[in-house]
Amino acid sequence: MLIGVLALQGAFIEHEKMLRSLGVDTVQVRLPGQLDKLDGLVIPGGESTTMGKLMNDFGLFEPIREKAENGLPVLGTCAGMIMMAREIAGSSQPRLGLMDISVERNAFGRQVDSFEADINIEAIGEEPFRAVFIRAPYILGVDGNVQILARHGDKIVAARQGRFMVLAFHPELTRDNRLHKYFLENMNI
Ligand code: GLN
Questions:
Q1: How far apart are CA 107 and CA 109, in angstroms?
Q2: Is 185 one of the annotated active-site residues of the chain?
Q3: What domains sit in the chain, N to C, each tagged with a CATH number?
Q4: Cβ(78)–Cβ(170) under 8 Å?
Q5: pLDDT tens-digit readout, 149-189
Q6: CB distance 166 to 150 below 8 Å
Q7: Which end of the chain is less packed: N or C, by CB atoms within 10 Å?
Q8: Dihedral (C-alpha) 147, 152, 154, 156: value to the nearest 10 degrees?
Q9: What is the pLDDT of residues 11-42, one digit of tens each?
């Protein structure tokens, strides 16, 4: 099994480490040709406007969209979640728009730029997941066949739509690999 990690910017190395700890091969994706032969793609956290600009420069938007529409499972975390959203509140920045969700960037406010919280995610078991939020977005609303996987308070912070999955936080910065495992096992990879 080969999982690509978009490696233009942001926390991609940590995703690779976590995926490898689960026994899959990974490849850093910077060029469209590197999307061939992938069984899944991870879009990491970072800064979504910078990532969007680089994706444009590297000609990645259309190839990723095309692969995704033809069956490639995609996991987006934090800035990666923003890239996956159809709608970004108050912004026209470039995005893949693969999921029927609307998101708000930097949505937890300045006074809590970064924080950790225990999140209940039924899909991965009873033990709460220690989620690391860094200038995190959250999901304002979902549409279509989107399944909500987790909330923090009243805010939606994890969701899935078929073979696409998004997390507002950084699962790769913990030692808990259950969400990566869930992605590998449940997206028909
Ligand atoms: N605030 C960032 C953005 O809007 C996302 C933060 C992150 O990925 N840790 O792109």
A1: 6
A2: no
A3: 2-186 (3.40.50.880)
A4: yes
A5: 999 999 999 999 999 999 999 999 999 999 999 999 999 77
A6: no
A7: N
A8: -30
A9: 999 999 999 999 999 999 999 999 999 999 99
